[in-house]
Design a protein that fits this description.
Helix content: over 70%
Distance between the termini: 37 Å
Structural class: mainly alpha
Strand content: under 5%
Number of helices: 14
Oligomer: single chain
Length: about 280
């Protein structure tokens, strides 16, 4: 762990130097993402000027979901963006070989190699939306609730990471898998909003058990703003232990991450650099 932190610090320093050198590029990236998020907020706001609720959710509840989703997407964007390069050609052009020539786990090296500072725009807007909505709803989490939300957040980031990793790993067989990663990752856009507003049962099943993005932002917030019986109906189970949804989400996250690591390691064993 100490070695990892030292290496990560070294990579971070180099990227900050590059950031200082190209400050305008960084500023434009953050502003662009922030404008996109503000545009999405204005769409939500304009809809709620015409109606009072969607699927039983008020404007502030929808905003709470959207803000929390953007917080996790922003964090994921910041530290986990380099896996896109693996999916979009690092296997095909042989650049992946550099990760195998250094005395560090390839996954850790990929993560440390690039920090996407543009993600701070998403993170900032998400925090503002979440705090505003939380205050408007008078949602008081307390110490226990804050810890539970932290556990949910870590599990959600695990699911995001596992999704990208398994999509990137497919390129060990197909050489490139960028388009597949784009499609898969963007499916989680549905969970910026409560799952209840969608009537398609197949979509709900997909987002709960196949690509478990519902575990990232939907279920964690429903846990705090809806009754226990409601969550049981969402999951299709009856439970009495109040922490069951928390354990359920963590187990899903761990299982999904384990599957992605298995696929990655299998692909890594068959990797052959191109050329002679």
């Amino acid at each position: 762990m100490v070695k990892f932190l030292q290496l990560y610090s070294a990579f971070l320093k180099q990227q900050i130097k590059a950031l200082i050198e190209y400050r305008l590029d960084f500023a434009m990236g953050m502003i662009g993402l922030a404008i996109f998020q503000i545009g999405s907020f204005l769409v939500i706001f304009s809809v709620f000027t015409q109606i009072k609720s969607i699927g039983g959710y008020t404007f502030n509840e929808i905003l709470l979901f959207y803000g929390y989703s953007q917080i996790l997407r922003g964090i994921d964007h910041i530290y986990n963006d380099n896996l896109w390069s693996i999916a979009f050609g690092a296997i095909k052009d042989g650049k992946f070989s550099q990760y195998l020539l250094r005395p560090i786990n390839p996954i850790l090296h990929i993560i440390m190699e690039k920090i996407q500072f543009d993600g701070f725009g998403e993170l900032l807007i998400g925090i503002i939306m979440f705090i505003y909505a939380k205050s408007a709803l008078k949602l008081n989490l307390g110490i226990e609730g804050s810890i539970i939300l932290l556990v949910f957040s870590i599990a959600g980031l695990m699911i995001y990471f596992a999704t990208k990793l398994i999509c990137a790993a497919i390129s060990f067989w197909t050489m490139t898998s960028g388009e597949f990663m784009v499609i898969t990752y963007e499916v989680n856009s549905f969970t910026k909003y409560p799952l209840d507003i969608y009537k398609n049962r197949m979509l709900k099943f997909l987002l709960t058990y196949i690509l478990p993005f519902a575990m990232v932002s939907y279920l964690p917030l429903v846990y705090f703003i809806r009754e226990k019986k409601y969550i049981g109906n969402v999951l299709g189970v009856h439970y009495t232990w109040q922490y069951y949804p928390v354990v359920f989400v963590v187990c899903i996250a761990i299982s999904f991450l384990s599957i992605s690591l298995f696929v990655w390691n299998r692909g890594l064993k068959r990797y052959q650099p191109p050329g002679n």
